[in-house]
Amino acid sequence: MDHTTHANTHSAASSRPARAAQVIETVYRKLDGLVPVAFLLLRCWVAWQFFKSGLTKLPIENAIVLFENEYHVPLLPPVVAAYLGTTAELILPVLLVLGLAGRFSAFGLFILNWVAYISYSEALLSDHLPWGLILFLFMLHGPDKISLDYLIGIFWRWRT
Hints:
The chain is mostly helical. The protein contains 6 helices and no strands. It has helices spanning about 5-55, 60-70, 80-100, 100-120, 125-140, 150-160.
């Protein structure tokens, strides 16, 4: 084998890792583009869990009965807890899906999730743990790019 053939073989072999790195980088960039969609889907899923729970408490008399007999919320009278809990379960999920006040709504639902876990003996750890973790993620990161918070941020940066 002459020197030229050896150089071409060596060059081809050393370019394989470079090409593999380029392919991996391209895949990562495409996956990064899916993050906002994944965040939106997670927001919708976790919001639906709370919203449908709020719907089961309507009319409000249903919620009051539940809070008087089944849910034992510490520090709040059952009627107050029923109104606050039901209102939060119906409003905060809508805000979370829209990504409007995303961190605030995630925090409110996180607290609601925690209170439900400690005050309702039938609350399943298997349900409340993933909901809490997802809400904690939104508290830290915000609702991401497919959200009204993001659009409002762009608008305010554009105005200044």
